[in-house]
Amino acid sequence: MSLSNLNQLYRQVLLDHARYPRHQGTLPAPDATLTVHNPTCGDTISLNVAYDGDRLKQITFTGDGCTISQASASMLCDQMTDQPLTTVQAKLDQFDQLVTGTGTATDLLGDAAVFNEIHQFPTRIKCALLAWKALEQLITQKEAQQ
């Protein structure tokens, strides 16, 4: 596959998640909720999570903002639903490395691998990381309560 075809595919995946977000909405009885803001771009994301022991059973989001932040939140929820917290943390770490340019995409990230070149646009890194950093905060809060 040529580079231009690959870029087109990545663009299509990104736009699909932005136009038709997965896991958008709220949970009826979340175990935790967190709203975060990106003042640079005006993005707002609220995450709702439900745990089942050491598993992230459900995760949903609501929000407003740029295509990147909304698509990234959709991909996050897609990747993390019904996953052990150890896997969730590994994916969070890999995504952070991917978007900051210190790591490479793996199959573990699924559609989120489309952000592999976002580090070339430093002002957009915060947009891509917003929901992922929020989930990291929620997991840290859960661990502190145990």
TrEMBL record:
Similarity remark: Belongs to the NifU family.
NCBIfam families registered for this protein in UniProt: SUF_scaf_2
InterPro entries on file: NIF_FeS_clus_asmbl_NifU_N (IPR002871)
Protein name: NifU family SUF system FeS assembly protein
Superkingdom of this protein's organism: Bacteria
Boundaries of every NIF system FeS cluster assembly NifU N-terminal domain copy: 10-127
One Pfam match: NifU_N
Gene Ontology biological-process entries: iron-sulfur cluster assembly
GO molecular function: iron ion binding; iron-sulfur cluster binding
Species assigned in the record: Lactobacillus selangorensis
